[in-house]
Every structure is written in structure tokens, then in C-alpha cells.
């Protein structure tokens, strides 16, 4: 993963921080390329529901940590 510039995540975690950490592992200080991350989500699947829940959680966390934004 340390040489990857494109990461595909097949299964999201229910915790937004875990998802961010998975992407961050592909990007290191010495890494010069932009790291692109894609999540594979099928319509009408459990993954689609997880995506909605995780996005809501991430928004809630962001609003608590940055109330003026």
C-alpha cells in the first residue's frame, strides 16, 4: 500500500475514523502523488445503507468538532 496512488475500498467500516485511516495509510509524507480513494457501493445493498449511516456520523462528528463551520 505504501506505493499506491489509487485505493479501492470494498467494505466500509461503521466508524468514519477507520475509513479515514485506511485512506491515510496509502498516503505518506514522502508520497508525491495524489492518493485517490474509491468505495465500491452497489445500489440497494447493505453497503449503500452503511454509506448513508457513516456519512451522517461523519457530519455529526464534524459539527461537534467545528461548531462554527
SSE layout and pairings?
Blueprint: E1 6-9, H1 16-24, E2 36-39, H2 46-65
Parallel strand pairs: 1-2
Produce a short descriptive summary:
The chain has 69 residues and is of the alpha+beta class.
Descriptive account of the structure:
With 69 residues, the protein is an alpha+beta fold. 42% of the residues lie in helices and 12% in strands. The chain has helices spanning 16-24, 46-65; strands spanning 6-9, 36-39. Strands 1-2 form a two-stranded parallel ribbon. The longest helix is centred in the C-terminal third of the chain and has 20 residues, at 46-65. The radius of gyration is 14 Å and the shape is flat. The N and C termini lie far apart (33 Å).
The total count of helices amounts to 2
First and last CA, distance: 33 Å
Molecular shape: flat
Q: Care to count the β-strands?
A: 2
Portion of residues in beta strands equals: 5-15%
Helical content stands at 40-55%
Structural class from helices and strands? Answer: alpha+beta
Order of secondary-structure elements: EHEH
Q: Compute the gyration radius: what is it?
A: 14 Å
Largest sheet: 2 strands, parallel
Mean pLDDT: 84
Lateral arrangement of strands in the main beta sheet? 1-2
Which stretches are low in confidence, meaning pLDDT under 50 for 5 or more residues running? none
Amino acid at each position: 500500500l505504501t506505493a499506491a496512488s489509487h485505493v479501492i475500498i470494498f467494505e466500509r467500516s461503521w466508524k468514519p475514523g477507520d475509513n479515514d485511516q485506511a485512506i491515510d495509510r496509502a498516503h505518506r509524507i514522502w508520497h508525491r502523488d495524489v492518493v485517490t480513494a474509491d468505495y465500491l457501493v452497489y445500489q440497494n445493498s447493505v453497503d449503500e445503507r452503511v454509506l448513508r449511516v457513516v456519512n451522517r456520523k461523519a457530519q455529526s462528528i464534524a459539527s461537534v468538532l467545528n461548531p462554527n463551520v
